[in-house]
Specification:
7 strands, alpha+beta, rod-shaped, about 180 residues, three-stranded antiparallel sheet
Length: about 180
């Protein structure tokens, strides 16, 4: 191998090494207000160029989420200062609004159910009052038949003498009284 070839090979090897060593790495960090600072390399250092949300930063001071304060002038970082990490702000407004919306929805559904229940109870009370009224009329009719066909062997019915254990017993007693009147 000649000296020229040797130099060319060495230069090629140096180029390959240089390419391997200088593979570009890009990093990013969040600012305290939610922006993204982009930079070449793994960490921000003085003399670097930065971008904010993809746009070059020419001048300004930025506080990173980590608390670090970065000052840029003339398009490059001129100072880095450690600081307190930015407080994590938790905006609960959206969560409270969602919870409030659900509560309002549940209240509306509850009011609807409450109204339906009140209407059903009212209908049941009305139906029960009609049943009681009709039962009273039936007892009056039976008593009327009893008085008309009363014979010395069959005294008229007396409500106080009859004790009913349930509405079914009462209905059975009425049926039996009607049947007794029919057979006479």
């Amino acid at each position: 191998m000649t000296i020229t070839e040797s130099i060319k090979n060495s230069l090629e090897e140096i180029k390959l090494l240089f390419k391997k060593e200088t593979a570009l790495k890009f990093g990013s960090m969040l600012t305290s207000d939610g922006g993204t600072i982009g930079f070449e390399g793994e960490m921000i250092s003085e003399g670097m160029s930065l971008t904010l949300d993809g746009q070059p930063i020419l001048k300004g001071t930025y506080t990173l989420e980590s608390g670090m304060i970065v000052t840029v002038e003339g398009g490059v970082v001129v100072s880095l200062q450690e600081g307190e990490p930015a407080p994590v702000e938790t905006d609960m407004t959206e969560q409270f609004a969602a919870i409030n919306e659900k509560v309002t929805s549940f209240e509306a559904k509850f009011a609807e159910i409450e109204t339906k229940l009140a209407n059903t109870v009212s209908k049941l009370e009305s139906a029960f009052e009609k049943i009681i009224s009709e039962m009273g009329k039936t007892v009056d009719v039976v008593e009327g038949f009893s008085k008309q066909s009363a014979t010395p062997e069959t005294p008229p019915l007396n409500k106080k003498q009859i004790k009913f254990q349930s509405d079914n017993d009462r209905m059975e007693a009425i049926k039996q009284s009607i049947n007794n009147l029919k057979t006479k």
